[in-house]
């Protein structure tokens, strides 16, 4: 990723951070709209789940300029989802859900360049997610 793109993602995430609970809420609304079957996969405490999601996003955003660390995070994420047997369809749905959630929370602040930078950041991390 270009340093400029990393900056777009980090700056916009700083703006979203105070509203990270909204971001997580909107992410799951969009994910379950795209993949209704995914709802039943979640068995744990959903409040905690939302916190884990935003902590994971924060950790990716913080490490965008460190490809090795980012790969480690992607591998961990992949391992944590291994038992779910997810494929490219689910990964794509998650990417779209995250962009849609950012749009809900940031509104016009999510300009095209920032959205493009997020899409490329998500693809990098999701590259380590299952694709079978
Ligand atoms: C942007 C992509 C995604 C991120 C950042 C993400 C993040 C996370 C994190 C941090 C956890 C917690 C792992 C732990 O227990 O420590 C988790 C668990 C989980 N994720 Fe994801 N996830 C993503 C995509 C998906 C997708 C596409 C699905 C399903 C279609 C999914 C289903 C689940 C389920 C079912 C759990 C376990 C919940 C439970 O045991 O109740 N995730 N995810």
TrEMBL record:
Pfam family, one: Globin
Organism domain of life: Bacteria
Keywords noted in UniProt: Heme, Iron, Metal-binding, Oxygen transport, Transport
Signal sequence, start to end: none
Positions of the Globin domain: 1-132
Similarity annotation: Belongs to the globin family.
Name of the protein described by the UniProt record: Globin domain protein
Species for this entry: Leisingera daeponensis
């Amino acid at each position: 990723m270009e340093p400029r793109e990393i900056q777009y993602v980090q700056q916009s995430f700083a703006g979203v951070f105070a509203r990270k609970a909204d971001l997580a809420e909107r992410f799951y609304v969009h994910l379950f709209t795209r993949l209704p079957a995914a709802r039943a996969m979640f068995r744990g405490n959903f409040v905690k789940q939302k916190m884990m999601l935003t902590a994971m996003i924060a950790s990716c955003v913080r490490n965008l300029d460190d490809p090795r660390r980012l790969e480690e995070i992607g591998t961990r994420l992949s391992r944590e989802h291994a038992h779910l047997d997810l494929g490219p369809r689910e990964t794509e749905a998650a990417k779209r859900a995250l962009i849609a959630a950012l749009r809900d929370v940031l509104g016009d602040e999510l300009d095209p360049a920032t959205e493009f930078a997020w899409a490329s950041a998500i693809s990098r991390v999701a590259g380590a997610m299952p694709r079978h």
